[in-house]
Specification:
mainly alpha, 2 domains, elongated, binds zinc ion
Length: 164
Amino acid sequence: MFICPTCYREIEEPEYIYGLFRPFHGGFGRRGPYPVCPCGKALTSSIVGNFSELSMLAASLRGLGVSLVCLVLAATADMRMHLQNIQITILPITIGLFSLSGMIALWRGFLWSSQRAPVTRLAPRAYGAAAGFLIPSGALAAAFLLGGMRDFSFFQRVLERVFS
Ligand SMILES: [Zn+2]
C-alpha cells in the first residue's frame, strides 16, 4: 500500500515507469522502474525508499545496514590509500553524506508527521531511516572530532589483521 504525500491518496498498485534522470522527482539517476502516483509524483525517494508503510524498527535496520556497508567499504578504500601514503578522504566524505541524508530523512519525518492522514503513517519510516543513517555516521564523526581516529591507527590495526 503506497501513500502519496502530495495528493493524500492511498494507492494499492501504482503504475511503474522507467526513468534515467529525474532530479527533484524523488530520486537521482535511478535506472529501474519506479512507482508513480496517478497525480504524477514519484512514490519513492533515494533516501527514504518507497512511500509505503514501514515500522520504525525495520526502517532503522535498513538504514543501519546501508550505512555500515558503505562506511566499511569507504574505510577499506581509505586504508589502502593510507598505506600508500595518500591523504585519506573517502571515509570523511561518506560520513558527511550519511549525516546529510539522515538530516534530510529527519526533516521529511517532521514534514510527514505534521501532514494529515494517511501521510502521517509514513513518518515512522522516515524517522527510522534517519536513525539508521545518523547513529553510525554521528558516532564516527564524533570519534574523528575527538581525535581518536585522526591518524587511522585503529583502522590500521583492524585491517592489517584482516588483510594479513
Ligand atoms: Zn499523488
